[in-house]
Amino acid sequence: xxxATWNVNSAKSRLPRLLAWLDQRAPxxxxxxxxxxxxxxxxxxxxxxxxxxxxxxAHFGQGRWNGVALLSRVGLDDVDRGLPDEPCFPEPGSSPDxxxxxxxxxxxxxxxxxxxxxxxxxxxxxxxxLRWLDALRAMLASxxxxxxxxAGDMNIAPTDADVWDPDLFVGSTHVTPAERAALGELMxxxxxxxxxxxxxxxxxxxYWDYRAGRFHQDKGMRIDLVLVGADAAGRVQAAWVDRAAxxxxxxxxxxxxxxxxxxxxDGDIGPVVPPPTTPAKLPHLS
DNA sequence: ATGTCTGTAGTATACAGA
Length: 286
Known about the structure:
single chain, 7 helices, alpha+beta, hydrolase, DNA-binding, 24% helix, 286 residues, Deoxyribonuclease I, Chain A, six-stranded mixed beta sheet, endonuclease activity, metal-binding, globular
């Protein structure tokens, strides 16, 4: 089963690339972020094209900003939009952003997340980001973290190895100790950062600013993560960033992250087997 | 270091967010 996540930076403007990518990579479950469409506009634009490709769809949008979706051809059940007790920005008086959608797909509880950016550490949005991450942690803790898959734009670089120039980012959002601690609280539920586990010590980025030729120079950040609980962690066969999807004309500023899982035994996830320490055949990066 | 892209408002070009 192939699981993928992609911050498309507007599903409407990414329409041709998104459909071509689905045909090329054939993911079974897709987490999308920053669709920037209302539910109705997403349905109008995508429902028939996705149905033709065998996908069930759940979208949670608000129009201009944010917007997340799940596509699945291995079942899409028990959809939850948003988080319990989700914080809002700005408080008071606003309603929750469209930043999380959860469903059961192929026996896993999959959440597509678009974590708040935070802007700068002294901006009120930064506190909102930390509260939002805590609400995500609380939702996962109240469920069954072993079956969880959390995939999306975390807007956090887990370590300095996940930033092209750590010195330049000191004091900036995405790398502060409080953000990394909040990510650590998620991981403490038993989640695995499967791309980093597959590529320890490698230069692996998922986001490159449009400006200043950053992609061409591979000056990026790894902020799009696939975090999986124990059930899926023992089934990981490949985990990589689809850097090719960032190339050419009209790309998103994020690349997809793709994770391949062995099939679960019939009706039973089975005993958890730790991932092999020697990578098997893996796609070539760069 | 802030060079780009996106959507919106509104009709040309500005603004905000990332």
